[in-house]
Prior knowledge:
17% helix; 139 residues; single chain; globular
Amino acid sequence: MPEERLETDGPDATEAAGARLAERLGPGDVVLVSGELGAGKTTFVRGAARALGVTEPVVSPTFTIGRRYDAPVPVSHVDLYRLDGLDEEDPALLADYLTADAIAFVEWPERAGRDLAGATVSVRLAHRGGDRREIVVAP
Ligand code: ADP
Ligand code: MG
């Protein structure tokens, strides 16, 4: 798939971009979602998760590094914001989420170190003033 670049003008459009990416995902795929705080990472993941059939509210994991949602293909949502390198943590920390049967989304993937080398797609979001966000989806 070629690299795609688009700009959105609000959260709904970012959710729709997530939903479009979801159409191309399947079990075992890992999507790295990067960008600064408030860039819209969780919003993008919410749109993708909805499109994949997740009915529960999709919010940032707080007390754990991730959540798994039931759906026809299960969806994992990991947020490594509070992590300071996986090395000091349980190395199996991601194993519960990045499973062969699930589609996984990982916010702040750069904090994981090398563990995410096998990811399928990377999504980068950036502020472009006001409610505008640039989204780059790259294989
Ligand atoms: P992150 O996970 O990157 O920290 P969130 O998705 O949690 O970001 O929050 C993004 C915030 O920015 C939300 O409050 C959302 O309503 C707001 N927002 C405004 N415009 C956009 C946009 N175009 N895309 C995504 N979020 C937007
Ligand atoms: Mg977030």
